[in-house]
Every structure is written in structure tokens, then in C-alpha cells.
Amino acid sequence: MSRYNPRATEMKWQRQWDEASIFRAENTSTKPKYYVLEMFPYPSGRIHMGHVRNYTIGDVLTRFYMARGFNVLHPMGWDAFGMPAENAAMEKGTHPADWTYDNIAAMRTQLKQVGLAIDWSREIATCDPDYYGHEQALFLDFLEAGLVYRRESWVNWDPVDNTVLANEQVIDGCGWRSGAPVERRKLSQWFLKITEFADDLLDGLKLLERWPEKVRLMQENWIGRSEGLRFTFLITGRDEGIEVYTTRPDTIFGASFCAIAADHPLAARLATDNAELTAFIAECRRMGTSQEALEKAEKKGFNTGLTVRHPFDDTLELPVYVANFVLMDYGTGAVFGCPAHDQRDLDFARKYNLRVQPVVVPQDVPVADFSVEEEAYVGPGRLAHSDFLDGLSVEEAKTRVIDRAEAEGWGKRSVTFRLRDWGVSRQRYWGTPIPIVHCESCGTVPVPREHLPLTLPEDISFDKPGNPLDHHPDWKHTSCPSCKKPALRETDTLDTFVDSSWYFIRFTAPDSSQPIDMDAANYWLPVDQYTGGVEHAILHLLYARFFTRALQHCGHVSLKEPFDGLFTQGMVNHMTYRDEDGKWVFPSLVRERDNGALMRSDTGAAVEAGRVEKMSKSKRNVVDPDDIIDQYGADTARWFVLSDSPPERDLVWTETGIEGAWRFTQRLWRLVSGAQGSLVAPGTAIADPVSEDSLALRRVVHKAIAGVTADIEGLHLNRAVARLYELANAIGGCDVPQINPAVYREALESLVRLVSPMMPHLAEELWQSLGHKTLLAGADWPQADAAMLVDDTVTMGVQVGGKLRDTIVVAKDAPREDVEAVALASDKVMRAIDGKTVRKVVVVPNRIVNIVV
RNA sequence: GCCCGCUUGGCGGAAUUGGUAGACGCAAGGGACUUAAAAUCCCUCGGCCUUUAGGCUGUGCCGGUUCGAGUCCGGCAGCGGGCACCA
């Protein structure tokens, strides 16, 4: 028999699907909708196995829900702005746009070879002026709605490259490209008010039942809501105070110092005539970027000489320090330190010989016996040495202090979030230009909407350090839209996370003249199943949730949670190899010698296998999807990435694994296409009654249908694969002449249809070989016959004293007494009982019998 | 440091609400076919003992609940992930 030739076959069906526009989603339909989406790729140049896995998972769902009668939207686009394009421009001199569009073209071709059921008519690229022009309009909407503002904030500044660095570009305190020590600088930046929605984003998490618990928890921690007291310490001898925030107002009587951040305005004022303090503040600022690890451990402070008065005790004065561990961005930028009940404060107090007064004592310890030495006590207990709080629990004491502070007017109950507003300004070329003009007389003026899209200039140069938009000869020079006088454009561009915060909405109406077609958005959203890597658990997913709320606020959509179901898939890993020189070796170059040792196929040098790690270019443990598809075809690659490992866990790519998948591909081909001679015409009804063998086969088939269906719905794709192996084994093990031909056809057709979401090309080919004239991609999903799912008999285990001794076959739902009788009649069971008294017999219907002796 | 998750054969992994542990795949070993190889097919495959039959033991470790625990509870260890001077 001929072998299956994937290359020709796959191309043939891809063309047919394309010609039939079978994956095109309609914005109006009588069918229920289902929106499948995988996180869109950055066009880095070539797809990798992680992409293949990600998009195959989504593709299985797409084809499955299509077959189940849904109107399915499964689009693809490109997260096309970002730094790699600029890096390529600097290194190779290619224009970012050319580099990006070339990469998109290459990756589109590759993705098409995977045979994905994608509606390519909706393809978008975020670097397309049509897309980012609409994004600019949304930015202006947000501005009008008061969700955008501008303020100064600190950035990592590379003084050689004249550019702002992202945190990951700062390596050991130095710029990744220039190697120059990074400075902290204050720049005016645009912010989106995500904190406005902090409570709502937190509350919304509870309703996201189809999200992984882990991701919800990570977002919850990221938002970091806390409740506490905000109050002002009066500075002794001055007519001003220091506002502090605390979540432990109950420990107020244990306070022994007040600490303010290095960036606190008071610190700045005190530093004007204090060189030592100036030096200390400078040291704190360096800390953030440079010697983090070194300094992290040590709590340092600078005694300002000021003191503040304790709110409950006029006689008590607390010293005021500038401390390196207090953050200006959180709370009020100032705290009171209670060393006995906070480890950080304790370390600080020990260093500067400050009072350590325990005020919370564990329940079972006498107050007099309790002291704190090197470890702060943070557990529950009752209050002591605390005046009117003595004897109260921590919770009671918190409430009492806050109530009193509010009654006396010097403090307020306050909710604080760790979450900060989203800084979206980037000092780069390859991003969405921020549609703002800076005018000396009018201030910041929005670019009029009729001038959108505000496009990037094409004639730019990366010869000079810094932002090309900034030193472009004329781009930034314009006139003020308001007063018409000469003015300057904003030269910052938007964070690329903005681009990815609404692309899933644009997919619903990619050609709309408005940023969002509300009808289309409301029809398709929310995304029913969103799939991507867990590395986007916080930022991308939180920004998209915020963005959707902001769009709702501005009247663009009528929902606030964009993703109903979220699935985070695992990474694709591979064994690493090194040669004698310690150089990483590509797996495709590794060969096995006869004695089992590994060698390089090109040089013959010995190779040593290392750990299994995430596929990465730097370690060269990558397998190129193109090579795999060339050699085995897309179906085999798809099958392999779906088999064995549950999709949420890491997958280890192995050469033997892909070989196994390839063998199964061939086996299916032989099993189905080899049956042609013995088949009845398509659609032949199964005449009752059928033989025992035929009935048994039908039962297996229908159980497989039910099982695979449930597995795909539950995203247990590896289990679905295992069931399909079982079904193929069962069909292959049949004595074909003994099987009713219509039953055999049903078995083969079911197998082909169940396999089709995973191996769509092969399934299509086999469907045709079974005599069908229409595309399988448009066919219905098989229905399990409930009557075939129940057996007449069940096999039950029989335990004696909890140990399995025998299994018995009894009628399904047989009466308890009958089951007991059969169980007790078993030789093996009698031997195990061995004359002991039977105290009790537990019978769990259709499951197990346990005889207690 | 805090929070979360995981731990089942040589390997990846199955196992409804607690109910026959190891489905399915990979690897390994043996056999058939073949001049030979590839491909394919058949058999074995957690460990220990045993002639068959069978017995004992076994889901990271210790303990508990239960007629019955991979599954539930308490403690411990190891691995992985997230966050981190967040007051």
C-alpha cells in the first residue's frame, strides 16, 4: 500500500479550505457564537514550537465548535510595534517597517502551513496606520473622559544612548547596549488611570470562573488592596506635619520612629542645606538600579534631627529618619515604625538603637514574660502597654484607633492599592504616536480627530542616539490646533501593551471606519476561550481588563470583562546539548553512535546531553517547525504537541515522540484508506439487530465519541488523544469479516471525525477516501448514542478487609443481595476470608464490594 | 521572607463525588515476517518472592480520618512559579 504523503495532501486541503472560505466568520448568524483567540504573536521573524502549540490548541477548539454548530471567530494578527524592530534597524540598517512586514509575511506563510482554521480576512497588524489611528482616537476619548493625565515620573535613563530603558534592559545597573551606569531621571509622562478601576478590577476577578485560580491570585496580589489608617504626625516646633499610612494602627503605642522616603518632598527640603542628607538621598536613588542585591539586605536611615509628637501621648516624641526602605510611590511615602511587630522596622531599630516595645502579646503568654529580640512578632494576640487598647484583639484595636482618629479629626480610614497608574509614554520611534501637541500658550492640545491617523515619518535615522522622532528634522514641528501658533508634537509613542489591550475587539470589525463597531463587538465579545502563556498573567491581561472597562465608560462596548475563559498553556522544552568545547549544539546536528554515545553529525565531535529546558535560541535547543513540517507534515506535528502532556503543563519535545506521532499518522491512513474494499456506501443505515462483535464495536465507538467530546470541552486534549489511540486500537483489532459493514463504516467515520480537529488534513483526505464529496471541515460533529454508553454488565472489584481479592461480573444495577452473594461465592474471596467472621459487607452499586472481617 | 502550585513505573502521563492504581504514548526486552535491513505485526514490561496458581509491597516522607485514601486532614521534605523593602 502507498504511504501517506503529507506535503502534497496538506497543501491540497489548505487550498480547498481557502477557496471555500470555510473559516470565515460572519458578524450576523442564527447560530450561537463562539470566539476563540490565542495571544497574537510578535513578528520576530519565524514561528517557534511554542506558537505551534498555542495555535494548535486554539485550532482544535475552533474546528470542534464549528462542527458543533457554532459561528466561530478565530482571527490572527500581529503585535507589530516594539523594540526588536528598532534594534534591527540599529544593527542591520533595515527600516523597522520593512523588517516588520517582511517578518509578518514569513510567519504568515509558516502559520498557513500549520493548517490553522483562521479567518485570515480579519488579519490586523498594530503597526498599520489604520489600526494605530483608531488607537489614537481611543486615547483622545480616554483623555476627554479624564482617564489620561500627565505627570513627572522616574525613569531609567541611559546617558550614552540618550534613551529610557525598560527594567529588563538594565543589567547590573548598566544599560544593556551601552554598558553605561543607569541614572534615574524625572520625565513628564502620560498615564492611564487604571487605579480608578482598582476596586472593580479586583471584584471582577471573583466572577472569572473560567480563569485559572493562579492567574486570579496573581492579579489580586498585584492590585494589592489594603485597609488602614492615614494620619498626620505633627512635627515638634514646626507648623507642619508628616502624613503617614499604616495597616497596623493597633501598634501605634509601639511606635518608635517615623520614616520618610528619600524622594519625599520634606526630605528634598531638608537636603537643600544639608550636604550629608543630599548624599544619602543620592545613594538611595542609586540603589534602585545599581547595587540592588548588596543594599537590599541592609536597612539604612538618616536622622533628620526632627521629631514628631505621638498622637495619643504628648510627652512622647519620635525621631524622623529618611529611610532607604520607604517607597514614595506607595501610601503617603512616610510610615511610622513599630519594631516589635515588623521585621524591617526591627532591623532598623536595632541598627539605630531605637526603642522596641511589644504591644501585641500572643494569647497564651503572660505580658510580663513577652519580649521581642531579633524576630518581630506579627501573629495574633491581645494588646498590651497600649493605654485604652489593652486587652483588645488586633482587629478590635485597629477599629478602635481608626474610630478615635476620625472622631478626633487627625486621621482617616483609608484604602490603599499597590497598583499604580499605567505609564504609557515610551521614548521610541516604532510605536503609536501620542496624538498631542505641546503649545507654549495653550499647553497640551489634542490632535484634531480629522487629522488622525497621525502617522510616523518614514524617513528616519537611527544614527544618533535617542528617539528618532525627537531629532527628525521637521516631523515634530507643527502648529497649535487651537491658536495656530508654532508648536511641537509629542514625540513619545505609546507602550505596546496599549496595542494589545484592544486588538481582540478590533478583530470583531477589522474594517470599520470607527475604532470599534459596537454591534460587532457586542455580538462577539467576550472572547469565549483565550489561550496564551502564563507570562502574560498580570500585565497584558490586567491592562486588557482595564481597557475594556475604560471603553465601556466611553460608550464603545457594553461589557467590562473581555475574556470569559482563559487558558495558560505550558512551554515547549527540549534537551540541551553541548560539544567538547562547551558550545551549544542544535538537536538536528546530534547523532547517536552505534555505542549509544552522542556526536555532532558535521564535525564528529562528542556531544553531551544536558538538562531539558525551555527551547531558546541562546541554548540552541530549538526544533524548527518548518523542518518538522517538511519531514512529517503539519498533522503529525499538531498531533504530537497535543499528545502526552496536558496543555497547561510544559511539553518535552523529543525525536522519539514525533516519530511515534508519525507512526500513528501512517497507521490511521492504512486503517481507513485500506478499508475501502469492504465498505458499504456512505449513509447506509445500521440494520438491527447486529452481532455481538458489532455491538461491542459500536459501544467502543460511541464511548469514544462521548469521551473525546467531553475531553475537548474540558481542554483535556492529551486525554482526547489517548482515547483516539484506544479507538484506533479497537478498530484495528477487529476481525473485519465478522463486523456488520455499516457498523464498520460508522466506526471509521467516527474515528476520522474525532481526529479531524487535531489532524485536519489527514482527516479530510480520509473522509474523501470514505466516499464523501463534501468537506469534512464543514461537517457536523458525531453524536454519541446514549444507548451505546451503558453496558448490561459491570465488573466490580471485591475487597476483603480493603484489599482487592477478586473481580466479579454482574448485571448492571444488580440488587445488593445478589452482588453480595456472587462476591461471597468466589473461591478467591472465600480463601481470603479463611473462616474469619464477616462483620459487614459494603456494597457500592456498580463499583466495589468490601467485605469487612 | 511571603503567597501559590506540584511530587504516581525507566520517561510523559491516566484514574467521576474517596471505590479494581499505572489507561494511552514513549523507551526497553523477546518473538514473527525478511537473504538482510527498514516498515509492520505479536508477546512481556512498578518492585520483591514464587513452578503454575498465587503472595507481599507500592502514588515524595511521617501520622490521622474511613469498611476503603493517589484523592480528605495535620506535620515534614524536595522541586517549580509569582511577588518582594507595599508600611
Automatic annotation (TrEMBL):
Which reactions does this protein catalyse?
tRNA(Leu) + L-leucine + ATP = L-leucyl-tRNA(Leu) + AMP + diphosphate
Q: Domain (Methionyl/Leucyl tRNA synthetase): give its ranges.
A: 36-174
Give the motif span ('HIGH' region).
41-51
Q: Which residues form the Leucyl-tRNA synthetase editing domain?
A: 220-405
Motif 'KMSKS' region: where in chain: 614-618
The terms under GO molecular function for this entry are: ligase activity
Main localisation: cytoplasm
Q: What is its EC number?
A: 6.1.1.4
Aminoacyl-tRNA synthetase class Ia domain boundaries: 419-573, 609-652
Q: Keywords in alphabetical order, please.
A: Aminoacyl-tRNA synthetase, ATP-binding, Cytoplasm, Ligase, Nucleotide-binding, Protein biosynthesis
- Output the InterPro entries linked to this UniProt entry: aa-tRNA-synth_I_CS, aa-tRNA-synth_Ia, Leu-tRNA-ligase, Leu_tRNA-synth_edit, M/V/L/I-tRNA-synth_anticd-bd, Methionyl/Leucyl_tRNA_Synth, Rossmann-like_a/b/a_fold, tRNAsynth_Ia_anticodon-bd
* Record-stated family: Belongs to the class-I aminoacyl-tRNA synthetase family.
The entry's protein name is Leucine--tRNA ligase
